[in-house]
Amino acid sequence: QVQLVESGGGLVQAGGSLRLSCAASGLTFTLYAMGWFRQAPGKEREFVATINRSGGSTNYADSVKGRFTISRDNAKNTVYLQMSSLKPEDTAVYYCTASQTTGLITNTPSTWGRGTQVTVSS
Fold first, then answer.
1. Is residue 122 a contact partner of residue 88, using CB atoms and an 8 Å limit?
2. What pLDDT, in 10s, does the model give residues 84-102?
3. What is the C-alpha to C-alpha distance for residues 76 and 39, in angstroms, rounded to an integer?
């Protein structure tokens, strides 16, 4: 059974930092591109960042480029999202995702975690 379990969310002041982690199990981690999506209250779910199998290629939403960094540790079956210079508009539930693809996640991912809440106060 494939599981993605997010952690690291919480409450932070604007300008602060958080690091989200996602532990994957039940899959061959190195066969999957990984990604993060988010959903703010009253808004549609949106793409945040993605990383390919090896970790050598990444892509970001324009709204987080230069502030967020996605990375992965294939030995630990874990993907991370380092978030810096956080803004109130980054407040959302953040979801870890996985897709069995050789490239980056470009379509709706096949596998989703339950999400972790990130709240940025002004």
1. yes
2. 999 999 999 999 999 999 8
3. 27
